[in-house]
Amino acid sequence: MSALARTVTVSLRPMERGDVAAVGAIEQEAYAFPWSKGIFGDCLRAGHSAWVVEEGGVIQAYSVMAVAAGEAHLLNLCVRPRCHGRGFGRVLLSQLLDLARARGAATMFLEVRPSNARALGLYRKAGFAEVGTRPGYYPAHDGKEDALILAMDLSTAKHNR
What we know:
Layout: E1 10-14, H1 20-30, H2 37-45, E2 49-55, E3 58-68, E4 71-79, H3 88-102, E5 107-112, H4 117-126, E6 129-140, E7 143-153
Parallel strand pairs: 4-5
Antiparallel strand pairs: 1-2, 2-3, 3-4, 5-7, 6-7
Helix pairs in contact: 1-2
């Protein structure tokens, strides 16, 4: 008996209002202190750049970015935990960097937990550098966790894809 190869389609597309429930479920799965579905809805209403990665029609990753006054701010980038290491985060980040440049942003900023080694590795490999710290920025089980502020100069940096 021969085995049939199964092809699964992976696609990148803008997030839609109908995606908020699925995105919210991934957020709940991925984080101890997740964004609410309402926050995602507010981001869409505000016109932020929000994207999803689908695999076989199922959302596996998403991102949200704001661009204003020559700056981009990566607000959220999340990959479903069981899909880590498959390049979905890199695809989303590359898309956002391209969009930020196209919208005239000279710099992209983001905050990340120092304890999130996977995200730090992604951002550093892409060319982000640490520019500061926000003390007590994130809620944590034992109080608060600082945020590292990372930035990339989009006018000169060439990001890795």
